[in-house]
Recover the amino acids of this structure.
């Protein structure tokens, strides 16, 4: 019997509901499989924890997590209307991303059969894109400050920091991923026409890395027109590699195009496994839905599926993905975001049955 | 007879074709009106000029332009496949925006009757949004550099610089615009959850400025989920105010949602009129279409319409807007981007007839 050790963060808002759903599905999967079990340790670090302690996690939170020897982290959404977002996010999620060097944020965006896209005729040209987002520096380096605060002459500076090592590794990851998963095109998302320091550098590194992958075709798209391309010609987008901020923006757009924020998963990866990777739905904490048992758990469940794939549990990952696809295609059980009236519980049970 | 002095830059790619079309329409408008004439001085500063001289414009280009006493600048798209984009853009357009303190980039995004949006059912909820984009600093401040160039330890830094004076003025502009044009909602586009210096500052200024406009409702949207909102609930978006980069990205998305990049206009405004403002289609130079007489001239013509409105030529502006709407709604004359086979010339003539 193989044990997979998980650190589980229900976190904020609808987090506890969708994380419980994901755990239920994982345990059911383990039961059916027989050879694997999930050992989950729950952490209450969250906005509620902040209200009690004045911190999102203990000062030695990263060390505690590291000492736990976890194979992965499952996390609910972070953020609360009662606390400024930069406090909650830098207090937990962004610190873990950076601290555990989760330098790839992998975000598949696929329009599943049975889901209605806001686009006209999307099924004529199936939407299936993969965002490989740099996840450890760039616009999220956190570098900057303010001077003359509150005065007429105030200046606020946020510095975007790109380093060659980090830029190269995420691009290599993108090309390796494309090659391993049979993708033919890697699109470089840039803005080097106006951002003449960081993005010109980014383009140079892209060219240099691409030269090592002659079998993978490449193209380049400005981030602004990339939004237009995703909307007007989504079928031309395959894998794209983007900076931290650009990946953030484009993956929300991609999620919307694939029908619901309630379906979009993400994987924050430390590919070398020096640290645990973190899996999380990309939707927010949606305080308005809390306790109503209506949140779509599939984004979180799909994130757990990405975890299984990353951990090399291919059989489990494949089985879970088909279950998700079956439930969605079937359309009988649908949470409100997908146009139905089913509950979180019903959706979770439907996935368990489909396993 | 009133004379309006225009500096005209055909610029790159399809620029000469769409700029000629715009001039033709303006002259026809003047003819019909009787009391106004347009005096156009053409400037050949462009990528072609760069190939001849090694510069996009003369070293004293801004001074020359200022000395010309122009009421406005009409410009074609800038950029050429043969020259790195940051050279062409910083050599001309971005330098003029900054040099002439064109601190507002006004971008109406309206789905005209007769145009097919890539969205399902967009006419059920008409799309009509206005992007007020900060246009003089922020992510486009141009500040930064690179160290250890080409070496493994290379670092590239691009600093985002927000100043209070500039942030306040664009927000005041947004609220004044909303009030004057009967808009009820101004959305603050932010990313203060991850960008804790510049965007937290931005949000503070937004709150402070908003307090002076109690009659205008406000809300706040993260730039990433703003893309989802624009796609899934475009009818909830009215006026939004965004940083230079965020406005750039969201206005391309908005243009795509309103059916064609060939329709989207922009106005780079110095509201105080210390310097001439600049009007330009938001599409690119599209070298693939050059000389084929197929480019849609309407984005450029609509930009000229924004110019008339800005110059206070309300009657001319209204007349031109109805002509554009008539031609588009009529659908008999449509360039390929709108699904037709008409030429640039035919489209331009149709607008002249509709005047
Ligand atoms: C919550 C926020 C800081 C985060 C981000 O911007 O990375 C989220 O939008 C995401 O995409 O995971
Ligand atoms: C050409 C480019 C520098 C420009 C910008 O990014 O501002 C364009 O995309 C625009 O939106 O006007």
């Amino acid at each position: 019997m193989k044990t997979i050790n998980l650190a589980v963060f229900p976190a904020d808002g609808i987090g506890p509901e969708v994380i419980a759903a994901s755990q239920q599905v994982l345990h059911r999967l383990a039961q059916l499989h027989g050879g694997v079990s999930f050992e989950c340790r729950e952490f209450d670090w969250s906005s509620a924890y902040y209200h009690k302690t004045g911190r999102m996690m203990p000062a030695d939170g990263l060390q505690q997590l590291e000492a736990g020897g976890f194979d992965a982290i499952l996390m609910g959404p972070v953020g609360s209307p009662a606390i400024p977002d930069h406090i909650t996010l830098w207090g937990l999620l962004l610190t873990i991303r950076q601290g555990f060097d989760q330098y790839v944020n992998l975000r598949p965006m696929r329009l599943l059969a049975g889901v209605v896209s806001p686009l006209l005729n999307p099924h004529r040209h199936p939407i299936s894109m993969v965002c490989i987002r740099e996840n450890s520096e760039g616009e999220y380096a956190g570098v900057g400050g303010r001077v003359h605060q509150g005065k007429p002459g105030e200046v606020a500076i946020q510095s975007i920091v790109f380093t060659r090592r980090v830029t190269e590794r995420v691009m290599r990851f993108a090309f390796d991923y494309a090659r391993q998963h049979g993708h033919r095109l890697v699109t470089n998302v840039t803005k080097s026409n106006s951002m003449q320091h960081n993005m010109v550098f980014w383009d140079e590194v892209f060219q240099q890395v691409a030269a090592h992958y002659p079998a993978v075709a490449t193209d380049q798209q400005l981030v602004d027109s990339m939004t237009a391309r995703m909307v007007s010609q989504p079928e031309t987008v395959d894998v794209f590699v983007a900076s931290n901020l650009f990946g953030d923006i484009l993956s929300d757009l991609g999620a919307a195009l694939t029908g619901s924020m309630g379906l979009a998963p993400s994987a924050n990866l430390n590919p070398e496994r020096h640290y645990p990777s973190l899996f999380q739905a990309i939707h927010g904490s949606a305080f308005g839905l809390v306790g109503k048992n209506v949140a779509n758990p599939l984004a979180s469940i799909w994130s757990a599926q990405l975890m299984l794939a990353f951990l090399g549990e291919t059989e489990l990952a494949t089985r879970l993905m088909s279950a998700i696809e079956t439930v969605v295609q079937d359309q009988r059980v649908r949470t409100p975001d997908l146009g139905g009236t089913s509950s979180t519980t019903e959706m979770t049970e439907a996935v368990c049955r489909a396993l």
About this structure: The radius of gyration of chain B is 20 Å. The domain at 1-102+260-355 of chain B is CATH 3.40.718.10 (Isopropylmalate Dehydrogenase). The pocket of 3-isopropylmalic acid (ligand 1) is lined by residues A 89, 248, 282; B 193-194, 224 (CB under 6 Å). The first strand of chain B starts at residue 2 and ends at 9.
